[in-house]
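Practice problem: Histone deacetylase
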Amino acid sequence: MLRIAYSALYAHPLPPGHRFPMLKYELIPAQLLHEGLIGEEDLFVPAILDEPTLLLTHDKAYWEQLRDLSLPPKEQRRIGFPLSAQLVERELRIAQGTIDGCHYAIEHGIAFNVAGGTHHAGSNWGEGFCMLNDQAIAANYLLSSGLCKSILIVDLDVHQGNGTAQIFQNEPRVFTFSMHGEKNFPFRKERSDLDIGLDDGIGDEEYLAILKDTIPGLIAQQRPDFIFYLSGVDVLGSDKLGKLALSKAGCKARDRIVLTECKDRGIPVQVSMGGGYSPDIKDIVDAHCNTFRVADELYC
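Answer key — structure tokens:
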């Protein structure tokens, strides 16, 4: 079965204006349970991330401002919502969930975080609804604990993983790959090890051709012993922030390309959900659930 980090805390502490997109964190597990793809025993609630592990990735001064709720108003506006103790706890649990998923993936091949994908958080800043970078924290944890020596981060959210790129800009053991809308947020981009910026309006055929032409060779070249996959569904044509034109079938095919490479090469993979902002919550949930459906076909 699939192992999924989940906590109802993910969905509740956001201000009213941000409540709608966060409903997916409740609805995705509910749909997977309904379909019988998972059982209650496959869901786990992460503990709170410990400070030493967090500080492998984020600057101490920045973390203390988050912890003490003293982040300047300008920096809070950059994140996109007012700071609160619940929000900080939420981010800590998300990051720990990704770490826990890494352990499971190493043993069983794949694990998911129903939240996560907080890739706009840099070492000393938060941005775009991201305060702590869950996959970067987990990658540094794997390296520091000696569990992995070479890591590939595959970020297919429609927005560039600028925080992830900044965090690992001087870390040769982590290769960052981001394929994103070139003219979309963030408008000041960092430099990943490999960036593929896409024009607005790209649909299934062109997107999938680029991905098929990139992923196998990249994995063969880098030979990672662990892969992080950020599977944002804001690439959908229905997404109000995405500017691309993928169908749900195209988005599912994207997931199949990435996860098939991981499965066939025997490389453990941790998957975080990332963004999704289609007006109809059903489209968001269905597209995210497709990622789990593909994994169920390949791994179970």
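Discussion: The first helix runs from residue 19 to 22. Students who identified this feature from the tokens alone can consider the problem solved.
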